[in-house]
Structure formats: C-alpha cells, structure tokens
Amino acid sequence: MSEPVFLKRTIVKQTLWSEHLQEERKLRIYLPPGYNEVLSYPVVYCQDGEEFFNFGRIATLAGQLIIEEDIEPFIIVGVEVNVAVRTQEYAPFGSRFRQYLACFAEEIIPFIEHNYPVRRTPDERIIAGDSLGGSVSLHLALAYPRLFNRVLSLSGAYYPESRDIIALEEDLSWLDINMLVGLQETDYQTDTGVYDFVQMNRETKALLESRGATVSYREKDGKHLWGFWQKELPESLLYFFTP
Fold this sequence. Notes:
By secondary structure, the chain is of the alpha/beta class. The chain has helices at 49-54, 58-68, 86-90, 97-115, 132-143, 160-167, 197-210, 226-241, and strands at residues 10-18, 23-31, 43-46, 75-79, 125-130, 150-154, 176-182, 188-190, 193-195, 214-220. It is built from 8 helices and 10 strands. A hairpin with a 2-residue loop joins β8 and β9 (193-195). α2 packs parallel to α8 (226-241) and α6 (160-167) runs parallel beside α7.
C-alpha cells in the first residue's frame, strides 16, 4: 500500500550565521507537494521550529490541508531555538530579545527570500508560535509591521511586560491574529512563575480589539501541551488559508 500523497514531502535543513546573535541558527524548511521553483508560495514562519515539526506535526498537517482541503500550497520555515536561552530570546524582558527580533526580521527573512520562492508581502506571511513563541510572534509584528500582520498564537505567554508593550499601541487595525488557549491552562508553571494563561489571553484579546486588531479567538478544553496544540493547528492554519 503506497503512503498517502501528503506524506510525500521535502524538508530541507539549513543553517545561517546571525550577526545579531553571534551564532549559527538552524532552520527547517517544508516544501509542499508539487513544489516548483518557478511558482511563488505563501509562507508560515514558526518559532520553536523543531517542536512544530516533531510534536506539532505541522508538515503532515500542511500536506493534509493542501491535498484534502484544496488550499493553496505553502512553505513552512521552522526557526530552531536553544531551550536553555529560549526565555532570553522570546520574552520582552530577556537579555537576547532585541537581538532575536532583529535576527528574525533582518537575517532569517532575507535568507529565506533569497533562497526560496516565497511571497514578500505581509499578507502572504504568517508568523506562528506556542506559549512564549506566540507572544514573540506578536512582538515581531509590532516591531516590524511592514513584514508581518498575520499572527498565529497557540496559548500565547502574554506576560505583563508584553501587555504593557501592546498597550502603548494606538492603532492595530492592520493586525490579524488567531488566538487559541486551553481552558485547563489556569495554573501553569513556567520558568518565570505560575500563570493563568486563560486570563492572560482574555486580557490580551481585549487589549488588541480595543486598538482595532482583527482577533479570531477560541478557548477549548486543553492543557499547555503539544497534544492540544497539534489537534487545533489545522483550524488555525485554515483561518489564514481559507478565502
């Protein structure tokens, strides 16, 4: 029995040198079924790239959506992170936060656009993340609105510092964000304390909407785990890829 066509995929591993971070950064690039260099593709950029591929199964899910839901094929770029410095890079109070934002916007995006036929407008780029990856994705959009206006946030860790930054914004009518949070995430232990992710996400949703952002928001039964996010990932992707 031959494997389903959506499992026939190409995942390319690349490494680039970051001047901003002064280190190498690994990328995983998913090329969709029927990939052709003469075409151009929308692109999804993922924080925690290794986890999105291994635990989120995003490559398999993308193939299913492209084949079964007949959505437009898209490229996925997973940006890997060293877990030991993840909070330093992803949290606004982190020591490497500014450098990471600059690396993403000024080094990773040009590298991908030089090497792959991805589209180069903000409405053809989606930036995705889970937990702190969700909040840093939003921070990237706020810092570089000409690059990103579409954010996919899975249980975003919108700590008070993040909400303070959002509160400084006056007009977010250009922003389109898909937010998911699990109802069992009310008492979650992180490396910086215990947080109620449901309350954090509700407050962030209200903050974003009060500034004119388009917010697609859902609360579902689920814990702060990839098992939950993987199940919900297709719905979040379809939000951006369904006309």
